[in-house]
Design a protein that fits this description.
about 60 residues, mainly alpha, elongated
Length: about 60
């Protein structure tokens, strides 16, 4: 489920942990920021066209197997 509305974010957050009403505004701001970032990244990164074969990936930043 995508959490697109404040009500959806609040409902899910309250399933995870007890929250006071004072906790909700910063949580909503955080969730909206994360969602906007993810939406932006989704538009910037092209689809990979299937599954990634991780066996052909390097194990470190230098490209060593």
């Amino acid at each position: 489920m995508e959490y697109r509305t404040n009500e959806q974010v609040i409902a899910r957050a309250r399933q995870i942990a007890p929250l006071a009403d004072d906790d909700l505004p910063p949580l909503i701001i955080l969730a909206n920021g994360v969602r906007q970032y993810c939406d932006l990244m989704e538009t910037l990164i092209p689809e990979l066209g299937g599954e990634i074969d991780v066996t052909k990936m390097s194990r470190n930043m230098d490209g060593d197997a």
